[in-house]
Amino acid sequence: MKLHRFIGDWTLGEEMAIRVAEAEVISQVKNVLRLGRGDQLILADGGGQEALVTITDFGRGYFDTRVEEYRWAKAEGEAETTLYCAVLKKENFELVVQKATELGVKKIVPIITERTVKLGLRFDRLAKIAREASEQSGRGVVPTISEPVEFSSAVANLSVGTKTVILEENGQEFSASIFSEAKSRAIFVGPEGGWTEAEIDQAKAKGLSLAKVCNFTLRAETAAIVASFLLGQSYEN
Amino acid sequence: MKLHRFIGDWTLGEEMAIRVAEAEVISQVKNVLRLGRGDQLILADGGGQEALVTITDFGRGYFDTRVEEYRWAKAEGEAETTLYCAVLKKENFELVVQKATELGVKKIVPIITERTVKLGLRFDRLAKIAREASEQSGRGVVPTISEPVEFSSAVANLSVGTKTVILEENGQEFSASIFSEAKSRAIFVGPEGGWTEAEIDQAKAKGLSLAKVCNFTLRAETAAIVASFLLGQSYEN
């Protein structure tokens, strides 16, 4: 049986007993998972540390646990990875955040492009989706989701050491060699309507790589999921 | 402006005028896209041929078009690709069918595994999703979706020439070399609960490769989307 993981504000590493008072976790443990005294779960601090704990007691508005073992969550890949994704329809962007989290992306930046139609993401909801996807996928670290940024300023502010790819139907076929040995990687995914010529020119002027990942036209959210996978791969060989 | 594509039962290749009488297409053209005389669209036969047509006239229950040009849809990859995916919750399996279609998978086989919980896919809906995703992605060919098959008989019936990968968390890291030069490829994606030991043993006995595509635990539908991407890639250098 797989143990359930919860990511929260716990201070891990010292105490041999941890009291859990987060209403959402308590409700999940009691009402959904129906765990009781003696059952085990994992508490993670979102910074990479985890504790395997056993429930010892339930109180009003809390439960107590005994720490069996401290350990580190599954290692994150070494590379810094950022997915720049055009703001999409709410449910599509939520899907992207969930999948990017599972696939190990470290930073998600919603971007506003010339053809971006939708705005108004709910950041509280996105943060919750990222936390839950981290819990489920065994990630120790929750990706950061930044405020939306204009495409042009995102491109302008890219650091020199970041190997950056713009997904574009007319680009070259994506090649693993683009990311090999890059310690910092980013992929830009455009909106349904695609990039404008001006945006492509801007990317070229900055020296970014234009690449496609499929011969067919992908929906933006599909491209973003594939991009998340490509960001997370190891390209050593 | 990108032209809209419709896949239907048209006989393409000879006539210079095509009458469209499919109620769904007519409704889409008139009510959703609001096209009129002189507007262009693409009719595709689902077998790889397309016609660029101009609307010439609307009648009761049909519209007429003039063929401007016959052409072939974007070429499909050469390899035969099959995604064997455990039957999932309805909306997740639908997502898989949509994304697998966009990413160029040619055949989707729902499989029943020991830990498959959900059954009862709606095949008419899945076929519609595959057709619409093909239309949108510019694919000339709609993937086939077969009836659900038991895992053990799917494995038993694999043809010798098919290079097959079972996605499994404890497998080796997926390597592009697995599929290079394979003209027929398949990937198996298990249910949320994972494969049983007996299933893994069966796969090993058949000589299939066990591979993982991520260090974290992926949801089944995420694994299936990544698998679809990997199936469709060209692995020549």
Short description:
The structure is a homodimer of 237-residue chains. With 237 residues, chain A is of the alpha/beta class.
Q: Gap between N and C termini of chain A, in Å?
A: 35 Å
Could you give me the name of the CATH homologous superfamily of the largest domain in chain A?
SPOUT methyltransferase, trefoil knot domain
The CATH level-2 architecture of the largest domain in chain A is identified as 3-Layer(aba) Sandwich
What is the percentage of strand-forming residues of chain A? 25-35%
Largest interface (C-beta under 8 Å) = A-B, 27 and 27 residues
Q: Judging from the principal axes of the Cα atoms, what is the shape of chain A? A: elongated
Give me the CATH fold name of the largest domain in chain A: Alpha/beta knot
Q: What are the low-pLDDT stretches of chain A, counting only 5+ consecutive residues below 50? A: none
Rounded mean pLDDT score of chain A: 92
**How many strands in all of chain A?**
12
Q: Kindly report the oligomeric state of this protein.
A: homodimer
Helix content of chain A: 25-40%
How would you spell out the order of helices and strands of chain A? EEHEEEEHEHEEHEEHEH
Largest sheet of chain A: 7 strands, parallel
Helical/strand content category of chain A: alpha/beta
- Rounded Rg of chain A: 20 Å
Number of domains of chain A: 2
CATH level 1 name of the largest domain in chain A: Alpha Beta
Number of H- or I-type helical stretches of chain A: 6
Protein name (chains A, B): Ribosomal RNA small subunit methyltransferase E
InterPro entries (chains A, B): Alpha/beta_knot_MTases (IPR029028), PUA-like_sf (IPR015947), RsmE (IPR006700), RsmE_MTase_dom (IPR046886), tRNA_m1G_MTases_N (IPR029026)
GO biological process, one term (chains A, B): rRNA base methylation
Keywords (chains A, B): Cytoplasm, Methyltransferase, rRNA processing, S-adenosyl-L-methionine, Transferase
